[in-house]
Specification:
With about 300 residues, the protein is of the alpha/beta class. The protein is about 35% helix and about 10% strand. The strands form 3 sheets. The chain has a 5-stranded parallel β-sheet, with helices on both faces. A two-stranded antiparallel sheet has the order 3-4. The longest helix has 25 residues.
Length: about 300
């Protein structure tokens, strides 16, 4: 979600090829466009796919859009997802060439992939708009309670209001505007809004395994649920379908051991697949769950 994490992780880039299993049934959809940020690109250090976007977007070969396209056997597929994207990048290009020799190029405005004949669109966006990824970094704490200062105080306004909650509410018009933009460009498309996995729990922390004070990690988890609720409301009001990846991923957060967690913690190493990983982002298990939930929503 956060471009600083993404660019740091790209320094260890190496290749891994994963071949999706194609579906055998006739396609129900004929032109699928995937839009979104790093949790839709399922950004990776291993297995970066340069087919649809520049290296700096760090799309994985196994991200859920590619899995869905393969399972549905869609003849035309375009994956615009890119690490660090916000709703602004739906209509504006995104420079992803900030690391010489490792990251390259510019990802065109994501909406440029949409056409009048596009009949399936997935949209996973909003986390960067509200600053949730930046908040995770701001909440890193090397000292345990009560020595460590809770980061939540930095997100509390002068009258006690939760500033992150305000940012989530303020982002809703941008989500609905993005959905309106999709509908304008692809009026016949089935549009799915894909939410965020339960990467952090609203009920428990695990300091120092994840060096964020427990009260801060649960606060972040509550704001994540709030963000997903906003996305669900925006989807409903815009006539789009909502894909709830959160509910089925509870119990697979960053505090779980390797092999059970679907989102990696601060340590940039994963077992799924084995090797370096992008912190606080879905691993291959998370991508698999995202793909299955999208397919279930489509009835596929």
């Amino acid at each position: 979600m956060n471009p600083r994490l993404l660019l740091t992780a790209l320094a260890a880039t190496c290749a891994l090829v994963v071949t999706p299993t194609p579906a055998t049934a006739d396609p129900h959809f004929h032109e699928y466009v995937a839009l979104g940020d790093s949790w839709s690109a399922d950004v990776t250090v291993l297995g970066i796919d340069r087919t649809y976007a520049p290296t700096g977007c760090a799309q994985s070969t196994w991200n859920y859009p590619k899995q869905v396209a393969a399972r549905l056997h869609v003849p035309v597929f375009r994956d615009a997802t890119c690490g660090g994207a916000t709703t602004a990048e739906m209509t504006a290009p995104q420079d992803v060439g900030r690391v010489p020799l490792l990251a390259d190029g510019v990802n065109p405005a994501q909406f440029d992939r949409l056409t009048r004949t596009t009949d399936l669109v997935t949209l996973g966006i909003g986390g960067n708009d509200v600053g949730l990824g930046t908040a995770v970094l701001d909440c890193l704490n090397q000292l345990p309670a009560p020595l460590g200062t809770p980061c939540r105080t930095r997100f509390t306004g002068p009258e006690g209001q939760d500033l992150m909650s305000q940012q989530i509410a303020a982002a809703k018009p941008r989500i609905t505007a993005a959905l309106a933009g999709i509908r304008q460009r692809s009026p016949k498309a089935t549009v799915l809004v894909v939410d965020y996995l339960a990467g952090v729990s609203a009920d428990r922390g695990c300091f120092p395994t994840v060096p964020i004070l427990d009260q801060d990690l649960t606060w972040l988890g509550a704001r994540l649920r709030e963000l997903n609720g906003m996305l669900a409301t925006a989807a409903k009001e815009s006539g789009a379908e909502f894909v709830d990846t959160y509910r089925g991923s509870v119990g697979h957060d960053v505090c779980e051991p390797a092999g059970k967690r679907w989102v990696e913690g601060l340590t940039p190493v994963s077992t799924d697949p084995p090797g370096p990983a992008v912190p606080f982002h879905p691993n291959r298990l998370g991508a698999d769950h995202q793909a299955e939930t999208v397919l279930d929503t489509l009835g596929g």
